Amino acid sequence: MKKTNTHILIAALAMGMCITLVPVIAEDENPPYTDTTYWNNLCSGTSLTSDQQTACSAYLQYIQGQNSSLQQQISDAQSRKDAASEQLSSVQSQISDLNYQISEINSSIEDLNNQIAEAEQQSALIAQQISDTKVQIQQKTDDIAALKEKVKKRMEKQQETMRTNQILDVLLGAKSFSEMITIANGLSDISQYDSHTLQQLQDETDQLNQMEADLQSQESELEQLQSDLESGKAVLAQQQAELVTASSSLYAAQASYQAQLSSAQSDLNSASAALSANQAAQSSVQNGISSSKANSASSSSSSDSGSSSSDSGSSSSSDSSSSSSSSSSSSSNTTPSSGNSGGNPYYGGWSNCTWSAWQLVHDAIGISLPRWGNAGEWLANAAASGYSTGSSPRANSLIVWGWHVGYVTAVDGDNIYVKEGNYLGSYREGWLASWRKGSIIGYIYL
């Protein structure tokens, strides 16, 4: 009796140990759906329990709801991008127009500056001519005054000394008639010369006065032109300042719309990337649920077939059980044997990825790997042990993440077929989901 109780106790302990390998996670113990790494890893498996399938179906609905939200975000971001792009295009067109107007005004101001400079040069020249003319006029005026004074004095002297009889004496004193004529003409020439000289000086003075008047008129016109040019320049400068102010406002608006456009583009990229990741996760989860249901149905059918054979009266129930077990093992997702695990340096069974990787390699190709520590240490420790490592997958290699390790049995282009145990305490195999490829740190070639 005591021995029987001991056997019962050992069986109970063994059953308890098996149960720990496949923990049942209560609904309130599940992490939130925002922990996408957990849920994507769980739901992409092909051996989900009924409870896990139910949980993953709820997660799938969550993903689909997120997709609708992300699509709305993409639509909103695209609308904001289009509006900002349209506003930016309008502002840039206005800036281009203003810059053209500013360029035209600058050109006009430059022309005015040239005209003002030329007018100032002409004014200076005319001013010099006026100054020179005034000097000449003064000189002629002085000459006229001097000549008038000289003639006046000579005439007064002649009136005092030269009476008629004296003139007669001079004339009569001539030795010949021709000499007398010459003397008489000489006295007349003196008077005519003085008169002619005075008239000539007066004419020159009048010309100079007219020249001065003309120059002063030109000077006045140039001064008026300068004034008009300066006024036009002031108006253009005011217009230029207004355009520059408007241009500055437009440049500020341009910067604002460019920032809005950049923000909308960033939001659009983020939402699009999130949607792509969600759609990939959705596909993986749907495949996991569908495969798990198919595998469950297949296992149930095999189990029913075995039970039927046993109930039909087979002479050896042990042979029927063996046949059923053989039929079940033919499934691609059937947990492989771990009977030859005596040399496995790890513990934990299928709930330990390092234990399962060691065991899978040992069972498949007969290699007993050394103990390389935690999963994230395998790549470096394998290289230190002399194993080749790299970044490209190969059949019969170990795939390593920072927290996980698995056994690669086949590679088809970008597709990788992996066998692995996981922290849920179950074995799984299948083509690796695309979302899991991004965090791979390398491969160990066996």
UniProtKB/TrEMBL annotation:
UniProt KW keywords = Coiled coil, Signal
**Domain Peptidase C51 residues, every copy:** 328-445
User: Is Signal tagged as a keyword?
Assistant: yes
Instruction: Please give the PROSITE patterns that the UniProt record associates with this protein.
Output: CHAP
Q: Where is the signal peptide?
A: 1-26
UniProt cross-references to InterPro entries, sorted A to Z: CHAP_dom, Papain-like_cys_pep_sf, PcsB-like, PcsB_CC
Q: Where are the residues of the annotated region Disordered?
A: 286-341
| Residue spans of biased composition, Low complexity class | 286-339
Coiled coil ranges (UniProt) are 67-157, 198-242
Q: What name does this protein carry? A: CHAP domain-containing protein
Q: Which source organism does the UniProt entry give?
A: Stecheria intestinalis
